[in-house]
Amino acid sequence: MAPHSGLAICIVSWRTRDLLRACLRSVVERPEAAEVVVVDNASGDGTVEMVRSEFPAVRLLADEQNLGFAAGNNQAIAATSAPFVLLLNPDTEVQDGALNALLESFSDERVGAVAAQLVFPDGSIQRSCRSFPEPVAILFDALRLSQLFPVSETFGRYRMTFWDHDSRREVDQPMASALAFRRAALDEVGLFDEGFSLFFNDVDLCYRLRQAGWRIIFEPAAKVAHHGASSTWQVRPGAILESHRSLIRFYRKHYRGLICPCWYGLVVGTAWLTMWPRAGLAWLARRLRSTTRPSPPLA
């Protein structure tokens, strides 16, 4: 397929060599895959050698330092030319018909992004979409009201617990584990904000797309298996800190001066106050696990 048609598939990898191998095997022979690009974020685990030897048709960008998820994807997107771009996590495997289903969803010219349905390795559905983190939605989630009233669209708004994630619909912010974009939409709103190195970069990009009038669609016919957190597991306490910092940055960028100062202060203050205890508990849990069972290998 000519490089100006179909999907450009972009994968950013960090220490996920064996999972990346399975991911590449699931896409390299697909006719819809016009281009496949892997950015390796200085894994040092044999990823670069594996891709070069086993997937010579894949374009490999081997970075000498870990640039993060946002910068890595920006690098991959800039290296491609197809009119549609699919971001894939290295711990995913694309199932039959998924790429074609994603492309068909772009038949509506107002659609700027299409999310695949993520499923766990056992085939069960992974809830992968949320609303934007507006104050009331965040508050209800923090108070665990989404767990007490999971079918309530009001209380379960942030994590969309009221929806089964098995029907096609418009959404705010799907996970970027398997998320396709129209290049024209990215050209309009820009690529990832690299100030969000690991978290909320996808939320920020989806927010900018929606603000510009583009639609974001969840397509259950496009199924992608997702192992989940293969890279962030390796740095779990630090990842929690970064997620809180990113939420605060998102609020400063998009909500400061636009929402009630009381709501703004409540969300930002709570994020600051809870990030260190959460990270500390994660560190303690990891230490306890390491004394009772071997850590999983760095794939």
What does it look like?
By secondary structure, the protein is of the alpha/beta class. It has 3 domains: 7-128 and 165-230, Spore Coat Polysaccharide Biosynthesis Protein SpsA, Chain A (Alpha-Beta Complex), CATH 3.90.550; 132-161, no CATH class; 233-292, no CATH class. Helices cover 39% and strands 20% of the residues. It contains 10 helices and 11 strands. It has helices spanning 17-25, 47-54, 68-78, 98-105, 135-142, 145-148, 183-189, 201-211, 236-254, 261-292; strands at 7-13, 33-41, 59-63, 84-88, 92-94, 111-119, 129-130, 169-170, 173-174, 178-182, 215-226. The strands form 2 sheets. Strands 1, 2, 3, 4, 5, 6, 8, 10 and 11 form a 9-stranded mixed β-sheet that branches. The chain has a two-stranded antiparallel sheet with strand order 7-9. Strand 1 (7-13), helix 1 (17-25) and strand 2 (33-41) form a beta-alpha-beta unit. Helix 5 runs parallel beside helix 10.
List the keywords:
single chain, 299 residues, alpha/beta, Spore Coat Polysaccharide Biosynthesis Protein SpsA, Chain A, 3 domains, 9-stranded mixed beta sheet, two-stranded antiparallel sheet, 11 strands, 39% helix, disordered C terminus
Looking at this structure, what is the CATH superfamily of the largest domain? Spore Coat Polysaccharide Biosynthesis Protein SpsA, Chain A
Shape: globular
Mean pLDDT across all amino acids: 89
Please write the string of helix (H) and strand (E) elements: EHEHEHEEHEEHHEEEHHEHH
User: Structural class of the secondary elements?
Assistant: alpha/beta
Q: What share of residues is helical? A: 25-40%
Residue fraction in strands = 15-25%
Catalogue the unreliable spans.
231-235, 294-299
Distance between the termini: 32 Å
Q: Give the C-alpha Rg.
A: 19 Å
Q: Give the count of helical stretches.
A: 10
Number of domains: 3
The CATH topology annotation of the largest domain reads as Spore Coat Polysaccharide Biosynthesis Protein SpsA, Chain A
**CATH level-1 class of the largest domain:** Alpha Beta
**Total beta-strand segments:** 11
What about the largest sheet?
A: 9 strands, mixed
In CATH, the architecture of the largest domain is Alpha-Beta Complex
